[in-house]
């Protein structure tokens, strides 16, 4: 049920020998970025910046907690059907929720120099830093000093950063086409039936998760208002209950690998015709559960709202502990963790650790890696210079 380590974070399922020829291969806003309304092209001098939206900060924090809990449940799924069912439910919607929010806050992205700079410093640079850091960590923690560096094959959690970089760069294209969501689903379906895409840039996940980013691009504030209606909140309770019952039934019958979106259907040992079926089915289930999740996210400022600005920190930093627990065999050495009390303990620890990693002190300590200024690396834009002179003169 669970995924084992491969050279760059997971083991792709080998193709069955009898697989038929396949068709030609088509070609977390990040978890810690600002949760404000998309920035306007320019702001008059002296105008106050727009306030952060508590709803989106709350949603990002709660989603990142579920990400950490899901990673902590993974070693327990082979011995606990309940853990496997919860794992499948969480994996159905936690990353889709992050990606949808990322798309929503990418709606105004264009090739303006200041936005490209932010994309580089806030996404590309953290990807490079953590790809190297994770590789060094694996060499040490897993006692594998010959483990290769690879900036083209994302390891473990860094796939999201490189995917976000590509998705955001493609934003102008999705804003141009007439039917962006159906087109993105077609791309995801073609990826699902194309086993020869390979591991470079983790293209399978990049393409199979693409529809959620495009859906976010197409959403408007009123759509979130509709989701947060009381009727939706009430309906979400039986929906989640039915999802758990179905997941409990499916746990011994269905591989969790379907929810990772990292393999083609052939690599999962399924016939090609299941590609369109599973792509549409999983997309529909994810959209429903994401909507139910958003319906219960608080709209007002909560004690954890401030942590929503640090979810990228928690996302990337908790990976060292999540992988270290496997490298060091904690779940094998302490069998009581596989008992109900142990599962509850693991869940509480995961939620507590990710909460600490999202706090402002941690953000200040690691801002050099997550949000570097890097003014030395860029030439000053003439328009920016003109605005600076205007502001100074005023």
From TrEMBL:
<keyword id="KW-0472">Membrane</keyword>
<keyword id="KW-0012">Acyltransferase</keyword>
<dbReference type="InterPro" id="IPR052734">
    <property type="entry name" value="Nod_factor_acetyltransferase"/>
</dbReference>
<dbReference type="GO" id="GO:0016747">
    <property type="term" value="F:acyltransferase activity, transferring groups other than amino-acyl groups"/>
</dbReference>
<dbReference type="InterPro" id="IPR002656">
    <property type="entry name" value="Acyl_transf_3_dom"/>
</dbReference>
<feature type="region of interest" description="Disordered">
    <location>
        <begin position="1"/>
        <end position="50"/>
    </location>
</feature>
<feature type="transmembrane region" description="Helical">
    <location>
        <begin position="118"/>
        <end position="137"/>
    </location>
</feature>
<feature type="transmembrane region" description="Helical">
    <location>
        <begin position="231"/>
        <end position="251"/>
    </location>
</feature>
<feature type="transmembrane region" description="Helical">
    <location>
        <begin position="149"/>
        <end position="167"/>
    </location>
</feature>
<feature type="transmembrane region" description="Helical">
    <location>
        <begin position="85"/>
        <end position="106"/>
    </location>
</feature>
<keyword id="KW-0812">Transmembrane</keyword>
<dbReference type="Pfam" id="PF01757">
    <property type="entry name" value="Acyl_transf_3"/>
</dbReference>
<feature type="transmembrane region" description="Helical">
    <location>
        <begin position="341"/>
        <end position="362"/>
    </location>
</feature>
<feature type="transmembrane region" description="Helical">
    <location>
        <begin position="277"/>
        <end position="296"/>
    </location>
</feature>
<feature type="domain" description="Acyltransferase 3">
    <location>
        <begin position="54"/>
        <end position="358"/>
    </location>
</feature>
<keyword id="KW-1133">Transmembrane helix</keyword>
<feature type="compositionally biased region" description="Low complexity">
    <location>
        <begin position="31"/>
        <end position="47"/>
    </location>
</feature>
<feature type="transmembrane region" description="Helical">
    <location>
        <begin position="303"/>
        <end position="321"/>
    </location>
</feature>
<protein>
    <submittedName>
        <fullName>Acyltransferase family protein</fullName>
    </submittedName>
</protein>
<keyword id="KW-0808">Transferase</keyword>
């Amino acid at each position: 049920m669970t995924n084992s380590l491969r050279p760059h974070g997971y083991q792709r399922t080998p193709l069955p020998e009898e697989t038929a020829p396949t068709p030609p291969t088509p070609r977390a806003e990040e978890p810690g970025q600002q949760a404000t309304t998309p920035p306007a092209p320019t702001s008059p001098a002296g105008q106050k910046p727009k306030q952060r939206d508590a709803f989106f900060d709350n949603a990002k924090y709660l989603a990142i907690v579920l990400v950490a809990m899901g990673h902590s449940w993974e070693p327990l799924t082979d011995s606990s059907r309940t853990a496997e069912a919860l794992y499948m439910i969480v994996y159905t919607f936690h990353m889709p929720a992050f990606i949808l929010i990322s798309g929503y806050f990418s709606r105004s992205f264009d090739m303006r120099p200041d936005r490209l700079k932010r994309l580089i410093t806030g996404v590309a640079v953290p990807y490079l830093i953590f790809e190297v850091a994770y590789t060094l960590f694996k060499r040490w923690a897993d006692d594998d000093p010959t483990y290769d560096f690879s900036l083209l094959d994302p390891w473990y959690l860094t796939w999201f950063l490189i995917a976000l970089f590509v998705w955001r760069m493609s934003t102008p294209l999705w804003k141009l086409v007439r039917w962006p969501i159906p087109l993105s689903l077609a791309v995801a379906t073609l990826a699902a039936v194309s086993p020869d895409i390979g591991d470079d840039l983790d293209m399978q996940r990049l393409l199979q998760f693409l529809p959620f980013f495009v859906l976010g691009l197409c959403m408007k504030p009123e759509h979130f208002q509709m989701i947060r209606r009381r009727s939706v909140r009430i309906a979400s309770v039986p929906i989640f209950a039915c999802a758990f019952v179905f997941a409990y039934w499916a746990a011994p019958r269905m591989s969790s690998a379907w929810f990772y979106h990292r393999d083609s259907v052939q690599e999962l040992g399924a016939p090609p015709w299941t590609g369109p079926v599973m792509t549409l089915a999983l997309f529909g289930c994810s959209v429903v559960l994401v909507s139910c999740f958003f319906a219960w996210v608080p709209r007002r400022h909560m004690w954890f709202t401030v942590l929503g600005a640090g979810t990228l920190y928690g996302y990337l930093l908790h990976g060292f502990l999540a992988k270290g627990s496997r490298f060091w065999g904690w779940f094998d050495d302490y069998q009581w963790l596989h008992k109900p009390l142990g599962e509850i303990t693991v869940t509480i620890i995961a939620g507590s650790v990710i909460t600490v990693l999202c706090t402002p002190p941690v953000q200040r300590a690691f801002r050099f890696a997550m949000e570097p200024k890097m003014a030395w690396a860029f030439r000053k834009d003439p328009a920016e210079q003109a605005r600076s002179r205007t502001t100074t003169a005023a």
